[in-house]
Amino acid sequence: MYVCLCHGVTDRDIRRAAEDGCSSVRQLGKELGVGQQCGRCASTARAILRETRNND
Ligand code: FES
Question: Where is the BFD-like [2Fe-2S]-binding domain (predicted)?
Answer without folding.
Answer: 2-51
